[in-house]
UniProtKB/TrEMBL annotation:
Protein name, entry field: Unannotated protein
Molecular functions (GO terms): flavin adenine dinucleotide binding; oxidoreductase activity, acting on the CH-CH group of donors
Alphabetical keyword list: FAD, Flavoprotein, Oxidoreductase
Residues covered by the Acyl-CoA dehydrogenase/oxidase C-terminal domain: 231-375
Alphabetical list of InterPro entries matching this protein: Acyl-CoA_Oxase/DH_mid-dom, Acyl-CoA_Oxase/DH_mid-dom_sf, AcylCo_DH-like_C, AcylCo_DH/oxidase_C, AcylCoA_DH/ox_N, AcylCoA_DH/ox_N_sf, AcylCoA_DH/oxidase_NM_dom_sf, Mycobact_Acyl-CoA_DH
Pfam families per UniProt: Acyl-CoA_dh_1, Acyl-CoA_dh_M, Acyl-CoA_dh_N
Annotated organism of origin: freshwater metagenome
A single Gene Ontology CC term: plasma membrane
Amino acid sequence: MDYRDTTDEAAFRGRLRAWIAEHAPGHLPRDPDARVDVLNQWHRAMYQAGWVGLTFPVEYGGHGMSPVYEAILNDELGAAGAPPPPAIGHITNAIRLFGSDEHKRAHLPGLLSSTVRWCQGFSEPNAGSDLAGLRTRAVRIEATDGSPAVYRIDGQKIWTSEAVWSQWCLLLARTEADQPAHRALSMLLVPLSTPGLDCREIITAYGTREFAEVFFDGAEVPVENVLGRPGDGWTIAMQLLGYERGPADVGWVARLTRMLTVLEDDVRLGRVPAGPTERRAIAHAWTELRALQLHVQRTLSSRLDGSTPGPEGSIDKLLVTRAEQLLNHVNLAVRGAAAILADGDEIEAYFWSRAQSIFGGTQQIQRNIVAQRVLGLPRR
């Protein structure tokens, strides 16, 4: 188990590190719209420099590289405190694996270049992690005047990330009324400019509006906008979530390690007082991060044969949740009231860490996946 860079990987890391040092934006604006503008510029600069789609197949606009290079990218961005790459891997791979040739031609270039933004319409008010219980319906309507058939969508999605800034939504809806729950779902590609669609922002505890409620009231899309086949929605969603639930190989670890390193330096230099109790808490956080790093490296190694992420990603999700929430708790506890009153990066990161155990599937859902699909335990 040798995780050191090869000669080619070391050269890639060196070029990337130099590029990040020259081009990474400074501190992101607090204003949500201004922050999104800066991130859009950053993601487009990354694409133009060749740092986006590293592992994506060449025939679809990527670079066809080993997953190790994606891991190095995330590692270096996190270590430098630079913004992460565009979070498009789950949607691009869903379209690549299940989309028609027309879907791929129409949507993959805009996703990879960050010129078209997408959101993911999964969670509902009464069906968060229980996707099989969602109620949003898309009914196929055959026109009587010879025009193409459409799906008419009615329902509501909630906690839809970045919907207020997106042009398209990857929507999971119930289309097959006569099928059991898991076989009744389809994935639809829906323009957010569609009449009958209303997007309403949700203000978070730390002042952003990155989430939204999205209402569908008779919104219509062509039947050609179904991704895969009608009834494939559950299969597509599970594959997509496999990409989403992992900690982006080592990116999460690098960002959390940077936070811990800054705290350690502040304690060593006397900028933040810390007694034995606080120092033990810091050591505990270090241990959790190290365990996460080793497990993520193991996960990365298992993907070097070109396999797609599977249910094992739920283990990474559970580990990164525990490590991130512990570290943010320790960071605030050691820094004390000053970090809370400053209303800066520390309190924002703490608030965000609380959501880690919910988005992408709650901890309870992740444990069920590990028990049933990884360990093979019975449901009862």
